[in-house]
Every structure is written in structure tokens, then in C-alpha cells.
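Would you be willing to look carefully at the protein I have copied below?

:::
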Amino acid sequence: MKGRHWFVVGIVAFLLLMFAIEYRLPKRFVWRLTFGHYDEQPFGCALFDSLVSVSASETYTLSRKTFYQLASEDTLKRRGFLAISEHLALSDVDVEALLSMASRGDKVLLVSNLFPARLEDTLRVHGNYSYFYFNALKKQAVSLFARDSLIWIASPGDSLTYYFYPQLCASTLSADSADADVLAIKHEVVGKNVDGLMTDTLQYSPVALSVPVGKGEIILVSTPLLFTNYGVVDGNNAAYIFRILSQMKGLPLVRTEAYVDETSQVQQSPFRYLLAHRPLRWALYLTLTGVVLFMFFTARRRQRAIPVVRPPLNKSLEFVKLIGTLYFQKKDHADLVRKKYIYFAEMLRRSLQVDLEAVEEDIRSFDRIAKRTGIDKESIATLVRTVRSVVYSKNAKMSEQQMKRLIDNMNDITRNLL
């Protein structure tokens, strides 16, 4: 197997290992109150809905309709309705609708920390709201403090006691109507100041009330956190929850999610809308398949044409021919001798530090050139003085043979310098 293949295998193995580690890591909980059907976090209601649907599979359904919409449905069969929320925000129209449903024989179970004022005034029931603090629940869960007691008293001679963390059942109810039937009470110790002394007093506060309305009834429960995933699995809470639901026995139960956060009503998936419709679902599958096939085929090694790169042409000789042709056509032999002299003088200056422009140094300069090149000193002096007369004369004229002779003599000197 080639090195590239081993590299790909290593990358795939590393990704599989990381996926396996990530899958086995404990999931991080989100402690947000949603009461959503699809929410499997501690304060969602996925586990509650699952348990109730299993125990009453044919009579338990979910709906997103408001009480006003449910009341307008034409049905001759009596039903039970359930709404779970932290703050049950019912409009006056919804309150009138659920009172109408209860009057005709339906049962309505409302589970919330806070109920609308219109409903409380009508039923002559008041709630004592207590804000939920997650940090307080965390401290109670790790401490050794005693739990609060909830006592089920709806069944005469068969009272049962259940124990909960105080933060799960902090809100209570109070009734001003003699018609209200207390289903469960909270047993707690309250400190009171009597004549300047603090004394502990036992106090019993209702947490579940049933108020008859017409042919039906409305049940108010002030402990919505007990219906969440965390509340169901904590101790023997499930038995208490089913005690409350037993008040709806004999009736098909409809739970409405119209009053919970909209984000918790739908399944938490970015493709939930596409997967909910068959044509869009198949379009998504085909798109993903096409992307995978495209990646597979384009990842293969492809034969690519290698462009032919020609080496750069040497234009030096062509340039020399061009310049020579121009001088040949112009017949300016003196100018060509001037340019050759400039190059000749510069070469002597670099090689022998001889400056031909310094006329007063001619004797010393000619002597150094003669010693270096081996050419007669008089010949060098004659050549330099002749070329100078051409260079410094503006109207110098010479034949082609004279030009060639002077340039050849200068070339002889430069060749002997090397």
C-alpha cells in the first residue's frame, strides 16, 4: 500500500476514534424549563409523555391547539385536558373556553407555578408563587437536609406521603371556596416570631385542588417540575404523578402544548421541516447522495496536461546585429570609436587604476599599460592620442578602415589585460 493510502487510512481511523470517544462522553445537561414533548433534558417532558402514552396508549394524545380551539371542536364524548407550564399565560378567551368545557362535563388539569388572575378570581383560588432557583436545587441535592413532604389526602383513609426537594414543590395554593376539594398538601416547617421568640410551626399548604365547574371540574396543581424528566425519575415521584392523573380516569386525555415555549414544541433537528414532508425528505436524501458521489469521484487522481514551457530566447546576438546595422547604414564611424573608447577607458580604470582622462598622468599611465600588456609604450601613446582627437572633436570624420584599425588596436590592449 502506498504512503498516501496509509495517510488516508490513518485519518479515517483517527476520526472514528474521535467519534467513539465523543459518543461515550457524558452529555451536558441544559437546565432550562421547557416542558416540551421532545425535550430529553432534565426539565423537558419527554419521559412523562412516554410513560403516560404507554399506560394509556389509546386515550393519550398531544395537541398544539389552544383551549379556545379545543372548545370549538364538535364532540359528544367527554374528554380530559392537560396543560403543563411554568407560567400558564391564558388569555381571557382561553379562560372562558376552559370554563365552558368544564361546564359541559370535561375535566381540565392545569399544572403551573402561576395561574391567570381571571381564572383564580373565578374559581376563588389563589396561588403563592415561588421563583425557581437552579443553584438552590443543586445545593439541596448534594446536602443532607430533609426533603419536603407532600401528602395525598384525596382518598379517605388512604393518605400517602411523598418526599421531594423543596425547590421542586415551592409554590402552593389557597382556596376561599368551600367547593374546592384539596387533593394534596405540603407539610413544611415555618419559623414564626411569637413574643420576640422564633418558634417552628408546622404548616399545611395545598398543592393540588379540584374545583367543580358545572358537570365537570378544573384541577389546579402548583408543582409543574414534578412532571419533568428530572421530577419523574426522582425517588417515588412517578407514583404521586399517576395519583393526580387518576382524577382523569375514564376520559381520553389530551395534553396541549400551546402554552409552552415554541422552541420546545418541535423536535430539535435542523432538518425537521425537510424530514416532515416526504418530497422534501427524498430531495434531501438525493442531495446528500449526490454530494457524497461528487466527493468520491473528484477525489481520485486525474491526468492533467502538462503545458510546454519554451526556454527564453537569447536576443543578445540579434540586438548586436541590429545596432551594427544601424551604424553601418548611418556611416557614423567616429561615434562608434567614441563609444568604444568609453568602454576601453573604463576597463583600464578597473584593471590597472589608470585614468585616461587625466592627461597630465599620461607618461605614468602609458608605462603601466605597457608593462601589463607587453605592447610598445610608443604604440600605446600614439593610439590613445589619436583616439582622443576623435573623441574630443565634434566634427571628426574617418573612413571605415581607420575605424576598424583603431578599434582593433584597443581590442589588442584589452585582450592582453586578461
About this structure: The chain is about 45% helix and 15% strand. Residues 316-417 form one domain.
